[in-house]
TrEMBL record:
Keywords: FAD, Flavoprotein, Monooxygenase, Oxidoreductase, Signal
Protein's UniProt name: FAD/NAD(P)-binding domain-containing protein
Region (Disordered): 369-390
Matches recorded under Pfam families: FAD_binding_3, NAD_binding_8
UniProt-recorded Gene Ontology molecular function terms: FAD binding; monooxygenase activity
Organism encoding this protein: Paraphaeosphaeria sporulosa
Signal peptide: 1-16
Residue ranges, compositional bias (Basic and acidic residues): 381-390
Gene3D superfamilies named in the record: FAD/NAD(P)-binding domain (3.50.50.60)
Residues covered by the FAD-binding domain: 117-375
Superkingdom, natural source: Eukaryota
Phylogenetic lineage: Eukaryota, Fungi, Dikarya, Ascomycota, Pezizomycotina
Length: 410
């Protein structure tokens, strides 16, 4: 049995690793020229599935924490804080032996997932043809490959999905009415320490009473441990009559300075420590292009030799940090289904393939779509929780905020 994986993102590579562990033959095709071809994003959290995730991958993987730690070279416990409007103290998640919580720098995580995976770069999928004997994928450079099952792990604008549903992404993706302004800044010394003390990895500002929710995170720490790069996302429900994609929308027409002024004005009611990051951000650090969140709900998918995974099937806003998390679960479940198809050569029977893919898609779409809806309603959810004090996820506890010492280890 030979599996063709389209896309070497977090989901596609996780699937490749799970297949490698089980000795199932696979190839990975990626449109980018190499692993540095595109900005991979900032940092993501791995929690609740860490043990299951690690046990699904081969034993020759380097240590996950060490390889991906976005706080290295500082030796700080990973924690993620929530500041609820007007309340004292903060709650959040913290790494512990019973509840592992790992925040990974994304390009390091991607590099880690590439361990011993021979990706075929510069392979941009253009077409898929399937029949009762197998499936052929074709690429822009004129080459092709043949296998038994194709997995589209090719992200939010998935060409595999387009092939399956015969509908362009523009028909299927929904623009979420959430205005997001994004900023980045470098800090050193005491200013950097103060940010780490608010939550070592990141903190959320839950302030619907001021009309926004915000997220502030460390992207990475500088090699000398004396500073680091931070990023933030400032989000408000969009009440304009026009979509954010419209060229006349305020987010499209406003300058970086106007966006920064708007953020600072809206956050003016926060205590000084919580608004400092916005005050310190230089105008060049504010992204002028608007961040447009699109999500996707699919009711069903055709069954055959093509399966979808991750954002290709259930793109969602990043407000709950669930996109990659769901893609990891998809990859683990799909690899179990594929292992089952390999037993007694069931994959040679097209009806067994169809049944396996259908069962995988049913569970994946149900779970993924629930996450899409949760993420879409995150602002309303934050508003409710801010009023009731109810926590966002299980395992949240009061965090002890302690002084941070900027001393690099090793
Ligand atoms: C700002 C931001 C913050 C986020 N934060 C979090 C977080 O904290 N936690 C979390 O769990 N999730 C987070 N997410 C979501 C997460 O990034 C995605 O859900 C996750 O990357 C999906 O993985 P994927 O493998 O499905 O798709 P992707 O990672 O997008 O990978 C798709 C791959 O397919 C390739 N590809 C596309 N077209 C083709 C083609 N024609 N041929 C070949 N290859 C192709 C792409 O180049 C890409 O490498 C965030 C997203 C954003 C935008």
């Amino acid at each position: 049995m030979h599996i063709l994986i389209i896309g070497a993102g977090l989901g596609g590579l996780t699937l490749a690793q799970t297949l490698r562990k089980q000795g199932i033959s696979y190839e990975v095709f990626e449109r980018d020229e190499d692993e540095n071809g595109r900005f991979q994003g900032w940092a993501i959290a791995l929690h609740t599935i860490v043990e299951e995730f690690l046990s699904a991958l081969p034993p020759d993987m380097p240590d996950l924490r060490e390889s991906t730690n976005h706080l290295a070279p500082l030796d700080l416990r990973h924690q993620f804080a929530y500041y609820y409007g007007g309340r004292e103290g903060c709650f959040g998640l913290e790494d512990s032996p019973d509840q592992p919580f790992i925040r990974a720098e994304r390009s390091r995580l991607r590099k880690w997932l590439l361990t011993n995976i021979p990706v075929q770069w510069s392979k941009s999928l253009t077409d898929i043809e399937q029949d009762d004997e197998g499936v052929t994928v074709r690429f822009k450079d004129g080459s092709s490959a043949r296998g038994d099952i194709v997995v589209g792990a090719d992200g939010v604008h998935s060409p595999t999905r387009q092939h399956l549903l015969k509908r362009p992404s523009s028909d299927l993706l929904h623009v979420v009415p959430l205005m997001a302004i994004v900023g980045e800044l470098d800090l050193t010394g005491d200013a950097f320490k103060r940010q780490l003390e608010l939550g070592h990895c990141a903190y959320n500002l839950i302030n619907p009473e001021l009309g926004f929710i915000g997220f502030v995170g460390v992207h990475y720490v500088f090699p000398d441990g004396q500073g680091g790069r931070l990023y933030w996302m400032f989000m408000q429900p969009d009440t304009a009559d026009i979509e954010i994609t419209d060229a006349t929308h305020w987010l499209q027409t406003s300058s970086a300075q106007e966006k920064l002024d708007h953020v600072r004005k809206t956050a003016a009611g926060l205590p000084p420590s919580l608004r400092e990051v916005f005050e310190l951000t230089p105008v060049e650090g504010v992204r002028k292009e608007p961040h447009i969140w699109r999500d996707l709900e699919l009711e069903s998918l055709p069954t055959g030799r093509v399966a979808l995974l991750g954002d290709a099937a259930h793109a969602m806003t990043p407000s709950r940090g669930e996109g990659a998390f769901q893609a990891f679960i998809d990859a683990m479940k799909l690899s179990r289904m594929l292992a089952e198809l390999r037993t007694e050569d069931k994959f040679k029977d097209i009806n067994a393939v169809k049944a396996g893919v259908a069962e995988y898609h049913d569970e994946m779409l149900q779970r993924g779509t629930a996450a899409v809806r949760r993420s879409r309603s995150s602002y309303q959810d934050a508003k409710k929780r801010s009023e009731t004090g109810e926590h966002f996820t299980s395992g949240m506890k009061r965090l002890a905020i302690e002084p941070v010492v900027l001393a690099a280890t090793g």
